[in-house]
From TrEMBL:
Keywords attached to this entry: Carbohydrate metabolism, Glycosidase, Hydrolase
Protein name: Alpha-amylase 1
Domain Alpha-amylase/4-alpha-glucanotransferase C-terminal residue range list: 417-709
Family: Belongs to the glycosyl hydrolase 57 family.
EC category name: hydrolase
Gene Ontology MF terms: alpha-amylase activity
The organism's taxonomic lineage, starting at the top: Bacteria, Pseudomonadati, Planctomycetota, Planctomycetia, Planctomycetales
Keyword Transmembrane helix: no
Boundaries of every Alpha-amylase/4-alpha-glucanotransferase central domain copy: 314-400
Record Pfam families: AmyA-A_glucT_m, AmyA-gluTrfs_C, Glyco_hydro_57
Keyword Hydrolase: yes
Stretches that traverse the bilayer: none
Residues in Glycoside hydrolase family 57 N-terminal domain copies: 9-270
Xref: PANTHER family: 1,4-ALPHA-GLUCAN BRANCHING ENZYME RV3031-RELATED (PTHR41695), 1,4-ALPHA-GLUCAN BRANCHING ENZYME TK1436 (PTHR41695:SF1)
Length: 731
């Protein structure tokens, strides 16, 4: 009968930069290793394999035997190695020079590692824009694959997707395969017989076609419940056996072989898109809910299946609009990338080339896609992934500063639109700290990088509505009703899994950013619980516009921010001055002066600080007072009476942050916790610890009041830990 249908199996394995070591290892044991174990028994069944660079580097160190096995399979021709951008960035989230640089760097790495040419690549999260065609071709790629929904959005019918198309940009041609959605939903979840029947139907109606399955390798053992199904229950062996049994009409092959032996179906230009769910997640929460409601309402309507290909959802780049914190991370990355590119263009001394190369690698790692969006998995909501991005950005930035500044102690101040909001921000930097101030946004301190710990203390996340919060609320109601009726709660809403009880009670939203130097005027006598709920505010300073000025000397620099605003009916003036000294041992001095205050009127002024990335629920992460006494873990709610010092310690991170006050204050602390969805269900995640020193007072006879706050960061423990680890590794 001969080959009537080519089937290409593309496996994509990925773990993000900064993920826990245990997750890497568990995925290896449950998915990556057993998958190869089984496939090695079927040398006549080839497949295409993509492994992200972050996972590949881990495998090289942790499991070199896996690398040896893949090399052997590549040499025998059973495995086709696919490339891509090194650290799995979404291409729409990084500059063009970095797209080409990452793809080229990873191709070179893979060639050295496996000794085979890299002709095609995996597009991270299949986020696509037509201009990427020229980028991929300039990086040496011949072909890739995208979801069939991309082709549907271009007007191509499903029966015209059994092959590949040519796509063009600026005269470059790229071959693109549609990735079959039906197969992605069937494999490995339905009986393999069903998949064979589906493929047979395509072969009968569209002979000499190519059908591509491309999806996450973690589906084969790492996703919840899949290990038993795929391996112990024998799904994978049954599937491979059926492929063998039907080899008289079904040829399992690779993307390369298909390109070399099958002509393209034609040419096409694909619209900006990703897979269907990603497009929907990029919408605002309100629009997501509206789209879901409309789809449900018209699902049974005549012709809806024909309409579905034209329902495209949103545009991936709007994640940066939806989440301000994501935009902060993105624009910080852009700043580092632009500085690095500028140094490369102007040239550096030969002795600085290794540092420049290392900075490039750190930047590439900081572009890993997972924390730059949020959907069905944690992504942006996972602090350890955000912290990893900032760790590599700070490392890259510090390397570039060492090239730029020859002195050990130095100081720099810069004004620019760093977060791309068409307003000016201020960057103050030294060999110890980097801080970003936003005068037009409440005069907030919105990023504070502690170089010694490679940590951004303001990698915070606001609590905001998400579409799945309604699911949590409804599931809680159903579980409560079921419990009252004596029903099995596990059967009431089996699609909803709570990692902690009572999550619906934790749903709360922030109306102002959770940053630092957030200026509050509270009602006198307001209590902690009211403040936690977002109440008690009587001023308009929290997000007001401040006028700013700079003062710079050889030894220090200061930013002075002034705002006239209202506290209740009274117009007052607030001046805050943030100073960074060259010889300061990791500290900022913040001086507040309030003037034009009403006479004999009680005032309650507070300054909000947030400390992110210092984990909760651990005995080695805690608050302490002026005597060094521990006050509780970092999720604690504290209502302290008059004190002039509070500190936060994260022994694992090696960071001690403290606030020293020139005038004793009462201090509130409480946690910011989000509820997000992940692979294992809905979970409570600690995002930051809020610390608010506040003063109740009456102005002096001149209508004035002032206080100085010193924010200090001690990283000696972190630096000692880094030196010890470097010595142990022989670095």
């Amino acid at each position: 009968m001969g080959c009537r249908l080519r089937l290409v199996l593309v496996i994509h394995n990925h773990q993000p930069v900064g993920n826990f070591e245990g997750v890497f290892e568990e995925s290896y044991q449950n998915s990556y290793q057993p998958f190869l174990d089984v496939l090695s028994e079927y040398p006549d069944i080839p497949f295409s394999l993509h492994t992200s660079g972050s996972l590949m580097e881990w495998l090289v160190e942790a499991h070199p035997e896996y690398i040896d096995r893949v090399r052997g399979l590549a040499e025998s021709g059973q495995v086709e190695i696919l490339g891509g951008p090194f650290y799995e960035p979404i291409l729409a989230g990084i500059p063009r020079c970095d797209r080409i640089g990452q793809i080229t760097a990873y191709s070179d790495y893979l060639k050295k590692l496996f000794g085979t040419p890299v002709r095609g690549m995996w597009v991270p999260e299949r986020v696509w824009e037509q201009s990427f065609v020229s980028d991929l071709v300039d990086a040496g790629m011949e072909f890739t694959l995208l979801d069939d929904s991309h082709f549907s959005a271009a007007g191509i019918r499903a029966d015209k997707m059994h092959g590949y198309y040519l796509s063009e940009d600026e005269g470059r041609l790229l071959k693109i395969f549609p990735d079959n959605e039906t197969l992605r939903y069937q494999i490995p979840f339905t009986d393999p017989v069903e998949t064979i029947h589906y493929l047979k139907e395509i072969a009968d109606h569209h002979p000499h076609s190519v059908v591509v399955f491309g999806d996450d390798g973690e589906k084969f053992g790492a996703w919840p419940g899949t290990y038993d199904h795929v391996y112990r229950d024998g799904w994978l062996r049954k599937f491979l056996d059926l492929l063998r049994q039907n080899s008289d009409w079904l040829k399992v092959t690779t993307l390369s072989e298909s390109v070399d032996t099958v002509s393209p179906l034609g040419s096409c230009y694909l619209p900006d898109a990703s897979y269907r769910e990603m497009n929907e997640w990029a919408l605002s929460s309100e629009r997501q809910l509206e789209l879901a409601e409309l789809k449900e309402k018209f699902a049974e309507a005549e012709g809806f299946d024909r309409l579905k290909p034209y329902l495209r959802g949103g545009f991936w780049r709007n994640f940066r609009v939806k989440y301000a914190e994501l935009n902060e991370m993105y624009t910080r990355m852009l700043h580092v990338s632009n500085r690095l590119q500028s140094l490369e263009e102007t040239g550096v001394d030969a002795e600085d080339l290794p540092a420049l190369h290392e900075a490039r690698t750190e930047l590439y790692r900081a572009q890993c896609n997972c924390p730059y969006w949020h959907g069905a998995f944690g992504g942006l909501y996972l602090p350890h992934l955000r912290n990893a991005i900032y760790k590599h950005l700070i490392s890259a930035d510090t390397l570039l500063e060492k090239i730029t500044h020859r002195d050990a102690n130095w100081l720099a101040v810069e004004v620019g639109d760093f977060n791309l909001d068409a307003r000016k921000e201020i960057r103050m930097a030294s060999n110890r700290l980097v801080c970003y101030l936003a005068p037009a946004q409440g005069g907030h301190l919105y990023e504070l990088d502690v170089r010694g710990a490679k940590h951004n203390l303001l990698a915070t996340l606001d609590r905001r509505p998400e579409p799945y919060h309604d699911i949590i609320r409804q599931a809680a109601i159903e579980q409560q009703q079921g419990s009252q009726n004596g029903e099995d709660i596990g059967k009431i809403h089996n699609a909803v899994r709570f990692k902690q009880p009572g999550l619906e009670k934790k749903l709360q939203y922030d109306h102002t950013p959770r940053k630092s130097l957030v200026d509050h005027f509270f009602q006198p006598g307001v209590d902690l619980e009211t403040v936690i709920q977002g109440g008690g505010e009587v001023g308009d300073f929290v997000q007001g516009v401040y006028l700013s000025s700079l003062k710079r000397t050889d030894e220090d620099c200061e930013v002075r921010m002034v705002r006239k605003g209202y506290v209740g009916p009274y117009e007052i003036e607030l001046t805050k001055t943030v100073s960074l000294a060259k010889n300061a041992s990791g500290s900022l001095e913040i001086h507040y002066e309030l003037s034009h205050l009403p006479a004999d009127v009680p005032l309650n002024f507070g300054v909000e600080f947030n400390f992110a990335g210092m984990a909760a629920g651990a005995s080695d992460r805690y608050y302490y007072n002026h005597l060094g006494k521990q006050l509780g873990q970092l999720e604690s709610k504290l209502d302290l009476e008059k004190t002039d010092r509070i500190g936060l310690v994260d022994e694992w991170l090696g960071l001690d942050a403290a606030l020293d006050l020139s005038a004793p204050a009462s201090i509130w602390t409480f946690p910011i916790e989000t509820i997000s969805q992940s692979e294992g269900g809905y979970e409570l995640v600690h995002q930051s610890s809020v610390v608010i020193p506040h003063w109740e007072f009456v102005a002096d006879e001149n209508g004035r009041w002032s206080v100085t706050i010193t924010l200090s960061m001690d990283t000696s423990a972190a630096q000692a830990k880094a030196l010890s680890e470097a010595a142990a590794s022989g670095a």
